[in-house]
């Protein structure tokens, strides 16, 4: 009877799916269960029938559980496949974080360049570069002077002077952070984009680079131009006893006039004349005229730059001409000085013995 009952149920090995280990385990358990009941059924037919009925129910429930386990396995496999497909399709989005990072890096670089651009005060950089180029051309005597030697000497002068220019305007911003919060809140130090440590590092680095370049070039006019600019720029801005000359209108104007009108004109001309072309020192008429014209122009710069800064200067005790005389009065003084400078330049150009110089000077001044 035992063999008949056991042989009437399907062999678990006929089921093709599911784990073999799991099937063997259940099959062994069922055999054990059937054999455990076999000896007890012989003594009592009623009990035997009840035991056979219970065994059949157990067997049926085990098959149902086994089938559900197999179905669950296939469902889990389908879930795994779906998960793998989603993971594979999700790889296409890996480029998005990379794109976001590249945009963030590009934006950071752009903001850094913009901050440095404002820190360097581009109008002073442009003015310095144009002044050096124009005065260097005064040393040219013939067309053959426009050579690689000329451009090399000009580049040395311009780069060293721009480095020193950044030192001077940077030191001025370090000394005027509180004033600039009122007058020029867009500057990096006043707005907080740059820390004081960053400003000090930039200023120190560019001053050292300027002197290093002037030294390795070996041009004494260039080196002395950088040194005098360094001294006057420091005295103009730094807040120590007997210095910070920008507090006094006359001393501030003298600093600007000395650098813009005298140092830039004479020193950079001599750099080209003596160092680049190896010629003797000669102060030509065009050089004298350029120095005189720039003297007027530098006074205008010294007066005009303080007109929009009157509010902060008055609060912090900077006695500029705009504070002392008023903005409108200083404005018209500047206009009068420019009229005198350009009128004199027009007459000098018209009296020039060189035809092309006469035409060029008069046309340019009339256009201005």
From TrEMBL:
Main location: plastid
CDD domains, sorted: PT_UbiA_HPT1
Transmembrane segments: 149-174, 194-215, 222-242, 248-270, 282-304, 330-356
Keywords per UniProt: Chloroplast, Glycosyltransferase, Membrane, Plastid, Transferase, Transit peptide, Transmembrane, Transmembrane helix
Keyword Cytoplasm recorded: no
Localization of this protein: Plastid, Chloroplast membrane
This protein's record includes keyword Kinase: no
Family: Belongs to the UbiA prenyltransferase family.
Protein's name in the database: Hypoxanthine-guanine phosphoribosyltransferase, variant 2
Organism: Stylosanthes scabra
């Amino acid at each position: 009877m035992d063999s008949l009952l056991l042989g009437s149920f399907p062999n678990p090995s006929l089921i093709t799916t599911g784990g073999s280990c799991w099937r063997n385990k259940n099959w062994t358990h069922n055999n054990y269960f059937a054999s455990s009941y076999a000896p007890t059924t012989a003594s009592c037919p009623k009990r035997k029938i009840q035991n056979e009925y219970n065994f059949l129910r157990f067997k049926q429930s085990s098959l149902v559980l086994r089938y559900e386990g197999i179905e669950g396995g296939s469902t889990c496999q389908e879930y795994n496949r779906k998960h793998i497909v989603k993971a594979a399709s999700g790889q296409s989005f890996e480029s998005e974080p990379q794109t976001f990072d590249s945009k963030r890096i590009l934006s950071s670089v752009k903001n850094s360049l913009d901050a440095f651009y404002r820190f360097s005060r581009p109008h002073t950089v442009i003015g310095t570069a144009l002044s050096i180029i124009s005065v260097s051309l005064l040393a040219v005597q013939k067309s053959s002077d426009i050579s690689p030697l000329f451009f090399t000497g000009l580049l040395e002068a311009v780069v060293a002077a721009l480095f020193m220019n950044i030192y001077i305007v940077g030191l001025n911003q370090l000394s005027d952070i509180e004033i600039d919060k009122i007058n020029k809140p867009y500057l990096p130090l006043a707005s907080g984009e740059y820390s004081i440590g960053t400003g000090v590092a930039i200023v120190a680095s560019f001053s050292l680079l300027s002197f290093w370049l002037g030294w390795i070039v070996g041009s004494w006019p260039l080196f002395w131009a950088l040194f005098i600019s360094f001294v006057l720029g420091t005295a103009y801005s730094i807040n120590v006893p007997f210095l910070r000359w920008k507090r006094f209108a006359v001393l501030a104007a003298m600093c600007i006039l000395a650098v813009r009108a005298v140092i830039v004109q004479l020193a950079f001309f001599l750099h080209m004349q003596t160092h680049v072309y190896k010629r003797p020192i000669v102060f030509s008429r065009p050089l004298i005229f350029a120095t005189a014209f720039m003297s007027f122009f530098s006074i205008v710069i010294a007066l005009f730059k303080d007109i929009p800064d009157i509010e902060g200067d008055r609060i912090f005790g900077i006695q500029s001409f705009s504070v002392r005389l008023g903005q409108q009065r200083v404005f018209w003084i500047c206009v009068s000085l420019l009229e005198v400078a350009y009128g004199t330049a027009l007459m000098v150009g018209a009296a020039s013995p060189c035809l092309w110089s006469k035409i060029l000077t008069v046309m340019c001044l009339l256009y201005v």
